[in-house]
Specification:
By secondary structure, this protein is α+β, with helices and mostly antiparallel strands. Helix content is 37%, strand content 14%. The protein is globular and about 75 Å long. The two termini are 39 Å apart.
Amino acid sequence: MTMLDAKIPNGPIEKKWSEYQATCALVNAANRKKMTVIVIGSGLAGGGAAAALGELGYHVKLFCFHDSTRRAHSVAAQGGVNAAKNYQNDGDNVYRMFYDAIKGGDYRSREANVYRMAELSIRLIDTCVAQGVPFAREYGGSLGNRSFGGVQVERTFYAQGQTGQQLLMGTNSAIARQVKAGRIERFSRHEMLDLVVKNGRAIGVIVRDAITGEIERHAAHAIVLGTGGYAKIYYLSTMAMGCNATAAWKAHKRGAFLANPSFVQVHPTSLPAMGKHQSKLTLMSESLRNDGRIWVPARSGDDRSPEMIPDSERDYYLERKYPAFGNLTPRDIAARAAKEQIDAGHGVGPMRNAVFLDFRDAIAQQGRETIQSRYGNLFGMYQKITGIDAYVTPMLIAPSPHFTMGGLWVDYELMTTIEGLYACGECNFADHGSNRLGANSLLQACVDGYFILPSTIGNFLSGRIKEPLYATDAPEFDQAESKTRKVIQKLLSIKGSHPVDYFHRTLGATLWDCCGISRSRESLNRGIEQIRDLREQFWSDVNITGGAHEPNSELEKATRVMDFLELGELMCIDALHREESCGAHYREEYQTKEGESLRNDEDFSYVSAWQQHAEGEPILHKEPLSFEAVNVMTRNYK
């Protein structure tokens, strides 16, 4: 075990980033044209990085497994993006935003990175407006704001319920500009299947063309991963079917440490599962909790329609338990509270697996038109899926896996433990601790891609100006491509009796049961055993139709699920190791008398960073967490 150095600059927290930018090494414009950077992923983190690096003059190779960069999963984000603009004059500022995120993450995030994110939020909104993002505006023309969970100010900028889509369209406009200028080379329907490493440094990638099946080699001076999170490992989640962890996991197997993999956020407001054949769940934006009130029948098993249950027989449990924040408690608390109500027999809906989100009072006070102007597309989406008019009948909502705070370990410069390999956005661990506050996901992705990486990557590339690209016929490329081909052939040759989805669904159910909203020593040990057995069964009994040299969605799923089967075990190992409750990591053995999280700062105030071991258990490394700008205390939202 080693103690990791995050390379955090010295000085007061409010000056660390400006001091870093003032002293870091640069690459001049003429030399940037000679250097190639590979970017994997075209969402707000990867796409933003590609556009910004292209604007600086680098030659960028941008890869995505979709048919268009516009289909990256950033498009699905609904509620908004945070920024400390203080347009509402309600007491917001950079420090308050930083403190809210540190507290929301239950003091398990790196202080310097979180402050930088809050600091850069102000620039981000100006950049997005310049790109044409149609943020909501007040009557007088100023940009509108609303609240999200875990805060007491209004700092969330939004484009109705389509904020991610609108931000991604702005990013794609920036990408298109660089493609036309010849600085971005775009590769759609290409998926990264391995990382090429030479003497501890990333020098290239192995990718598969999903149309032809061809295996390709690409070299670069630096490589950036912006591939999102791994919540789809649970199968039923708010993530798109194609979301995966393969690029990050392949980097991990080549030497990049994976940090806090058990920190997974369960979103409190998604549509509940309606049957055993469902393949994904639908997110309903946290913004709905601004005006909607969450409740369950006070009497367990009450099967009356919600309109027939009077207020005196309703339990507005978040308002009762957390009066200071009410329905806008952080996601980990709201999700856990919903699960408690459902497990206690107060669940509603056909499968008794949901709670109500009710807009009756908001409509009565503000009018239907006002609510429709704020959430009209979300209400329309809900009615299209369920057939229920939420203006009249309360929504049914339930907790669902949504976001991963864990990810590749990176230092202050966003570099992983592999030299020349960077990770930005959700695929790194750095900014959210053990629980992300709503609307900070889009923020992190954008500031990592647009502002941070373009500054820090030059610090590395400035020392490689005279180095040519490694030849793609080098032995390291041969070895990586050979390994990739062998894995594909092995998968296709098994010819077992179960499709890939069987293994993914079974893995997801195991993780939800053993390493979901709550975990215990017993459940985690059981989960590790079950995942190992399932992985062994996968490699002997999976059935993949089609061939390697054609479009083959089953093969694509198999290469992703085989990585999930390894990652799932590490998630359980990490959760088992961390003998405390913090944020979204809720160990049943470690709770207060009131059922709240019981953190152990003396023994676990660190980032757990895991190193792959070829022939044994993963190796734990630690990054100690120190706090200079905040006082560490027990979270209180009551």
